[in-house]
Design goal:
Elements: E1 2-5, E2 15-17, E3 20-25, E4 28-33, H1 44-65, H2 67-74, H3 83-94
Antiparallel strand pairs: 1-4, 2-3, 3-4
Helix pairs in contact: 1-3
Length: 98
Amino acid sequence: MAISKNNIITETLSGKVGNIIFKNYGNKTVISKYPDMSKVVKTEKQMENQLQFKAAQAYAKSILSDPDKKSAFIKTIPKDKTAYHAAISKYLKENKTP
């Protein structure tokens, strides 16, 4: 892993290029290789959580894609929260699994 500080070339990079990942933390850019997750075995609970989160994302996207629903929803959330994150949070709280 490499760390780049105040580098004019890498300061705005983030994301994946080939099998290299660029991450920004404050004024540092961290460069690392793409993780190999092929041998990771997920538990049943992890798979359930992934499915629930996918459903939460679909819920948030359905609210934000309809202008009427979006404007009504925005009125119900604090000003410091984004509508997308608030919708995901709402869905997860309402559909909590034991």
